[in-house]
C-alpha cells in the first residue's frame, strides 16, 4: 500500500457511495503517514464542491484519517477553542492522486466544551434510499457513531487535550 510521506502536500478527495466526487481539498500537509493512520493539516486551502463551486477554509485544521475506523475527524483551531467536525465515512485509501474516502452523510459536530450534536440524519436517510446503501453499511455506520461518541467522552485520539495543539505545532514547522 502506498503511504503519504511526512511533509508531503496532498489532495483530499471525498466521494459519495455512488462513486461521484463530493468535495476536494486542494492542499493538505501530511504530518504523519502510515497504512493505518494519516494526520494532516491545512489552513486557508481551496475546496471545490461537486457542482464546481469553490471556497477557502477559514482557519487552521488538523485532519485525522484512520485505516480501519469508519469516520474521520477534523479539528479546527478557532479563536475560542477547537471545534471538531467528524464525518462518518469509509476508512481512507491513498494513491498517487489523493487521500480518498466515501462520505456517508452523517456528521458529528463537537464544540470546545466537548458537547456534540449528530447532524444530517435526514440527508443520510435520503441518500441511503437514493444510492441503495446496503444494510451492512448502515450497521457499520451506526456502530461507528457509537464508537465516535465514546472517543469524545473518553477524550481519545484527536479529542485528547493536547492532540490538536501538538500537531498544529508540528504543522507550523513546515510552514517556515
Automatic annotation (TrEMBL):
Any Pfam family hit: DUF402
Requisite cofactors: Mg(2+)
Catalytic center residues: 23 (proton donor)
Sample GO molecular function, one term: nucleoside diphosphate phosphatase activity
Coiled-coil parts of chain: none
Enzymatic reactions: a ribonucleoside 5'-diphosphate + H2O = a ribonucleoside 5'-phosphate + phosphate + H(+); a ribonucleoside 5'-triphosphate + H2O = a ribonucleoside 5'-diphosphate + phosphate + H(+)
Domain DUF402: 18-156
Record: residues binding Mg(2+) 1: 87, 103, 107
Binding-site positions, Mg(2+) 2: 105, 107, 120, 123
EC annotation from Swiss-Prot or TrEMBL: 3.6.1.15, 3.6.1.6
Keywords, comma-separated and alphabetical: Hydrolase, Magnesium, Metal-binding
HAMAP family, per the entry: Ntdp
PANTHER family: PTHR39159, UPF0374 PROTEIN YGAC
Entry's family note: Belongs to the Ntdp family.
Stated role: Has nucleoside phosphatase activity towards nucleoside triphosphates and nucleoside diphosphates.
Annotated protein name in UniProt: Nucleoside triphosphate/diphosphate phosphatase
